[in-house]
Amino acid sequence: MLRDFFSYYRPFMGLFWLDFGCAVLSGLLELAFPVAITGFIDHLLPQGDWSLTIAAAVGLLALYAVNAGLLTVVIYWGHKLGINIETEMRARAFDHLTRLSWRWYDRARTGKLVARVTRDLEEIGEVAHHGPEDAFIAIMTFVGAFALMFWINPQLAVIVALIVPAMLALVVFYGGRMTRTWQAIYARVGDFNVRLEEALGGVRVVQAFGNESHETHLFAGDNARYRQAKLDAYRVMAASSALHYMGLRLVQVIVMVVGAGFVLSGDLTTGGFVGFLLLVGVFYRPLEKIAAVIETYPRGIAGFRRYQELLATDPEIADAPDAIDAPALRGDISFRDVGFAYDPDRPILRGIDLEIRAGETVAFVGHSGAGKTTLLALLPRFYEATQGQITVDGLPLSQMRLNSLRRQIGLVSQDVFLFGGTLRENIAYGRLGASDEEIRQAAAQAQLSSLIATLPDGLETVVGERGVMLSGGQKQRVAIARAFLKNPPILILDEATSALDSQTEREIQTALDALAVGRTTLVIAHRLGTIRNADRIVVMQDGQIAEIGSHAQLLARKGIYAALAA
Ligand SMILES: Nc1ncnc2c1ncn2[C@@H]1O[C@H](COP(=O)(O)OP(=O)(O)OP(=O)(O)O)[C@@H](O)[C@H]1O
């Protein structure tokens, strides 16, 4: 895990060494100050020379100023190092997330993912900055302070050292407990975000059912669990801080008493006594520091583990090493003995054999749950067929780079997802970088012109989160406009189940008919009226193809289709 963690420093080694170097210098100065005070008391004071005293004071002040400069560098550029690493990790996490499969997202909770990309990584940034620097300086000051104490008075130094194992044991014990409590807090934050995301995202449903109090009650549960997790952490923090504080004070008092004896017997100078007491503080600071960072490290480590887990998630559907960019496709599609299951115990599609010629319009009908949507989701490889093979223009899907395949398949689904921007941005999503003229033309082809003309802001109208400010029929037409812009040779239309008024339906049908021209079009039809003109109709039942033929042929057959059409 550590090697992986340190690999993130590589692009920022300049910053790292700057931060590290300044931190080390500052650590050395911290060691020098008690020695300077000793010298001041033992050698300067007895001379009674004011000019020398003032010169020493100015010198000391200059050293403090240098240290202040060093600390400025450590705080700003050190944190810059941390945020750089955090930014890099966040970018990788987001990029990885955008590539994970539909199957993975079927089970994911968006709220938890948001927590991973925001909070987890924030904590990692802190550790990335403080981690190595703190560890090194802790050891340096620890050893340095001990050597200086030993030099001033070996017996006293040994007394101080005796308590070290007990303090280290405390650090290790509380470090482990802190890690566990932070893991629990992270889990609660995830729950929190899931609840927020679902309750607020679905607030219209909540209100429609009058279930506000129910949601508030559920939220109160999450809120209380989060509070409890935080309280557990604070309890560990409080105990650990108090014990460390007491440990340090105990040693200081012992040193004071024993040291006073040495001073009285003439074995220790007053300056040495004061310097020694100051060094005890410096000696234990690394331990105190570690005690303080046992609060931040575990958070960072817990966050980094979750980050690693996320990056290790297999995208499942990715480009094969020898995959090629799909050439411009004509759109001959072939399913050969295709089978599929979301869950191995429950096959959804079985033995699908189907040849579709380029330019053909094929409609898929059948009862709800028959597997129509699933079958067509295999074509852009949103899910991978678990059996058989699908080819386009004779090329197996797995041999084409995903992007080059998906670029050539247009999709107009039942529930259109719009982003919270403007109408223009949403249409342009069909082909990023499309010109204004192309966007307007696509809007016209999708029968959106009259709507746009009535909107005060026209194409610049903000559509609201998920397009809530547009009607269902309007959203569908935005999806159609996207498909026009994309201009793919293959088209998948999942007809909306919700009934539209006849005028809107006519407009959408006109747009869809225009869109289908010259493309291989696969339509999932819920209303039989719209598919009479399809070249062929595929009737699906229980994940299998039950009938294939034209409208007239299927009617004459007096099978399932005839029954559906009746
Ligand atoms: N993401 C998924 N994970 C697990 N099972 C799923 C998933 N999507 C669909 N299913 C199941 O697969 C079966 C086929 O669903 P599918 O959506 O393909 O049917 P459909 O014929 O398109 O139905 P409809 O006409 O209602 O849209 C259903 O039993 C459904 O419960």
Structure, explained:
The longest helix has 53 residues, at 212-264. 64% of the residues lie in helices and 11% in strands. The radius of gyration is 35 Å and the shape is elongated. The relative contact order is 0.08. The chain contains 19 helices and ten strands. With 566 residues, it is of the alpha/beta class. The chain has helices spanning 2-7, 13-44, 50-99, 102-107, 110-152, 154-162, 164-201, 203-208, 212-264, 270-312, 372-377, 402-406, 423-428, 436-445, 449-454, 472-486, 502-516, 551-557, 560-565, and strands at 333-343, 346-356, 361-366, 387-392, 395-396, 409-412, 490-494, 520-524, 536-541, 544-549. It folds into three domains: 2-312, ABC transporter type 1, transmembrane domain (ABC transporter transmembrane region fold, Up-down Bundle), CATH 1.20.1560; 318-408 and 488-566, P-loop containing nucleotide triphosphate hydrolases (Rossmann fold); 421-482, no CATH class. Helix 3 packs antiparallel against helix 5 and helix 9 (212-264) runs antiparallel to helix 10 (270-312). The strands form two sheets. A six-stranded mixed β-sheet has the order 6-7-8-3-9-10. The chain has a four-stranded antiparallel β-sheet with strand order 2-1-4-5, with no helix packed on it. The structure holds adenosine-5'-triphosphate (ATP). Adenosine-5'-triphosphate (ATP) binds next to helix 11.
Structural class: alpha/beta
The unreliable regions are none
- Return the CATH class of the largest domain: Mainly Alpha
Number of domains: 3
Question: Which architecture of the largest domain per CATH?
Answer: Up-down Bundle
Q: Could you tell me how far the N terminus lies from the C terminus, measured between alpha carbons in angstroms?
A: 65 Å
Strand count: 10
Global shape:
elongated
Strand order of the largest sheet: 6-7-8-3-9-10
| Count of DSSP-assigned helices | 19
At the fourth level of CATH, the homologous superfamily of the largest domain is ABC transporter type 1, transmembrane domain
Task: Output mean pLDDT.
Answer: 87
CATH fold description of the largest domain: ABC transporter transmembrane region fold
H and E string: HHHHHHHHHHEEEHEEHEHHHHEHEEEHH
Percent in helix? 55-70%
Unique ligands: adenosine-5'-triphosphate
Query: Which percent band covers the strand fraction?
Result: 5-15%
Largest beta-sheet details: 6 strands, mixed
Rg is: 35 Å
